[in-house]
Task: structure prediction
Amino acid sequence: MQDNGFALTEIVDLADHNELFELLDNERVYALSHQGITDGFSSVKAISRSTGIETRRLLQPQLSPIDIAVAIAEKLQMTVGFEWAECPAILLCHSHTNHQSALQLCNQLSAELNIPADRFIPLNYGCVGFIELLNRASQLLEDLPDGVHIPLLTVETPEHWHDSSDKAFCGIVSAGATGTTLWRGPGHSLLHVETATEYIPADRRKEEVPLFWTEQGDMYDFRGRPEHKLVMHMDGESVFLNGVDLMLEACLKSYKQVAGEGERILIAPHQPSGKLLKAMIAAARQIPITADYLNNLPYYGNSISSTIPTILARLEEVVFANGYAPVDQGDIILLPAAGICMNRLEDSMCIGRAALKWQPGRYLS
Result:
């Protein structure tokens, strides 16, 4: 197990900022799922059983993604203490069916922060987005001196590119935003990181049915109002099957790299849905992968690239909620992820993995 000298500083989120988000409970999801022409959820309890989620977040109706992008940027700078003007690159993941949305958000944020737009690197990367941010930032830092921060931002508002009557998505997606910086300095050491695009063979998909696809038309927003937009759909059965396998593969590869060092291992996987997460954990325990598995779904949902860093931002809270002992210095956190491949929706999925050596405390510039 090698330490490359890169570390994450403080990790922050906005989940508790009620002025930015409103909560969407299962009663409302049940009603939303019955708006369209397809069958909705059979009951409110069925939503809890299927998704593992009780509440999820929507951006407040008067706000847009730039509002939470500015809020998370300000919170990150205030917490860590770096200067934006001294950052050679700023990475931001904002997933969307509109591939220009991430670039547009970066341009807006550059104006708000008074930072040249060419410093921003936009990513439309989906569920593996945070791991890809780590991967890109670690590559950039190879040629940079100590003490240089590369901010990593996630800003996700999936309600803007999903149909609220689509049962496959309406119960799981949640808005979220997170921030941290990677640098050569003290903090949570990045032990390894890797991302890849995996082609899914035809025998692992339904014939002539893509894994994911987009559709333009008259849909419903998450407040039940008609809206014309480009939305994402998925073949839930095939995505579930391959998602479990890819998450398990990512988990196992990282585990083999860090096992045997004597440290306690925790696993903070991407949280796609309750069923998929439970299946992955059950399979991992059979291998066995001896670790503490973290589930943060009930009150946070699947916030796409914001999901894993939201767990890290409130790690002590999540560990306590899962019934484990407090996190200690030197504990290793594995971050396996799998999900949509934004560039090859129909026949591929993204996979990512990373590992951190946790150092409790505050790591400021």
In short: The chain has a mean pLDDT of 95. The radius of gyration is 19 Å. The CA atoms of residues 109 and 219 lie 29 Å apart. The longest helix spans residues 236-258.
